[in-house]
Every structure is written in C-alpha cells, then in structure tokens.
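Handout, section 4.2: multi-component inputs.
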Amino acid sequence: MAVDGLITAERTVAEALLAHYRVHARRLPWRSPPGAAPPDPYAVWLSEIMLQQTTVAAVIPYYERFLARWPTVEALAAAQDGDLMAAWAGLGYYARARNLLACARFVAGELGGRFPDTEEGLRALPGIGAYTAAAIAAIAFGRRAVVVDGNVERVVSRLFAVETPLPAGKAELRVLADGITPERQAGDFAQAMMDLGATICTPTRPACLTCPLAAMCVARARGTPERYPVKAPKKAKPTRTGTAWWIEHDGAVWLVRRPDKGLLGGMLGLPTSDWREGAAAMALPDIAGDWTPLNSGVRHVFTHFALELGIARLAPGPAGAERIAKALGPGQWWPRAALAEAGLPTVFARVVQAVMALGED
DNA sequence: TAAGCGTGGGT
DNA sequence: TACCCAAGCTT
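Output:
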C-alpha cells in the first residue's frame, strides 16, 4: 500500500486523482464539494447541456441567469419557446436549447418532474447522449458510470500513449477509461478527470510537474505528452457568401423566425439570401424599392464554413411595408432601438452592430 | 460513419 | 492571421 501523499506504482489512478481532487477541485456554480451530497439533478442536467462543446467561462453567466429565471424543471417546462431561445442566444448550438425545452417538458409532464436515475433512462431523453447520460448518472445519482468527454480522451490517451487517431480511437479510449473508473465516487472521479484535463493535462504545454498522475503516465515517460491524442486530419473550411436584408420602416426592422431544423434553427434573425459558395454579387429579394447596398458587412465563422455576409438596406414606405410579409414570409417588425434585446444569434447581432455604426442614415 | 451544428478565447 | 479547441448530439 502506498504511503499517503506519495505516488507509487501500486497506487491506482483513481486513488491518486481523487486525493488531488479533494484539495484542488474547482468550485463551480453547479458543483458540490468533493465528497458532499450530490447536487440537484436539474442543476446538473442544465449545466451539462450548456457545457457540451462550450467552455466553463462561457457557460457560467448563462447558467446563473437560467437558474434564477427557471429554478425548477417545471418552471423551465412552462417557458415560452421564444423566451427560451432568446435567453440561449449567443451560446451557440441552438439545437441544445430546443432539446432542453423538449426534455424539460417530458420530465415535468411524463415523469413527475424527476429525472431518470440510470444511464439508460437518461440516454432516452432529447439532447442527452452517451457522455451526458453517464455524467448525470455519476454526478447527480452516484452511479458508477464511465464518463468520457474530450478531457477524458486526452488524459487517457496520454496515460496509455494511445496511437490510434481520433475519432476511430474513441472505443479504445472508452475501454481504457472504464478500466480506471472506480466503483465508488465515480462522480467525483469524472469531475476530477475533467478538472485535470482543463487545468493541468491541457492540449498544449501540459503542466506535468504538478500532475498527480505523472508517475503513471506513459506519454510523460516518453517525453511526448503533446503528441496525444492523435487526431485524423480535418477538412478545409469553405467560404460562403450571402446578403442580409435590412428592411426598416417607422423605426422598426423586419425580423424572421428561422425554421426549427438546420443552422440557427428556431432563432430570430434578419431575412437573408441563400448562402452559397462562390456567389459574390449582392443578392436582393423580389421586393421592388430603392435598395442600398452598404459598404460594411460581416464575416463570421461557423463550425463547418465561413460566411461573408453583405448588407442591403431598404426603406419601403407605408405601402411597401405591407408587402414585406407577403414576399418574405412570416416575421415581425422589431423596434430598432430594442434590437439588443431581440435575442439574435451572434452573426445577426454583428450585422446589427455594423448597421448601427453607420448612424441613423 | 460522417456530416451538420456556434461561439469566444487562446496561441 | 489562422488555426485550435471546449463537460457532444442528431441524423
């Protein structure tokens, strides 16, 4: 048996990591201290959905606002769709917000307001995949679950110097993670692994000198921790171009609700042309009037393409204003002075900024 | 299995 | 500047 505080080959990964976590755990709004009673499953679920592919720093203010406004799953289930989407605006991956609402309504309506306490039950809910089901089961319900996120993949790939490139290597990494996951305290263990990945076993320049697992780490022994995880090469990102249509009448701007599926689904936005590769010219809708192409535009990078969005402006006048809905489909006039509160996704918030910077005319 | 799906911060 | 990356899920 290892002497406490001294890391030896006999000490397991979980023992070394949990001892470190008891002292160095990050204090986060949705987290209970190490060894304490589990937090409210609603809080765990809400934080885990927000944290999918999103940094802790970005999530914290959204989490605080959501929990204050909708303190229970029943309260969230009663929210208006538009209010929920607007509150999520800026956080990205908007399918998460749509699934969040669907999940809350199912739990509140069909499950008596109680989240399932097993991985299998959680996995069946909208927006909850393998990682999130395992994380909630372990953190909120004390289950032994193998929690594998990007942090865990990086830590495990270095511990065992796994050469199989991601994403093909995911299955292998999961088996290895299973092998080091303890029977008890799986929730603390999962959070300890993620803390380690976020603060010590970082993608670049890992702080191996302060790592509680350094003595057990094969990549460290080889002197090449940054080599892992090995990743398959990624594809080039194309550029698409399009035009946003700024139609303003009587101090208000025409906004449209985007379809539920696809990019920025369910979000409010400016009407735009199609976004296509190669198209360069300003594109205008079939609305007669004195269109003004603006010199400024917006460049915005999405996950799988970059967008260069030009802006064309129209002041249709009272008669023309009534034809807008017919030409562009359903939408609403939003007061220009209140656009900051419309809950627009970032790409359109930037268009608003660009137009506002031009002044009233 | 692979592609689609946001955004902001770090290097 | 141009990448890379972050507590992934859905289809």
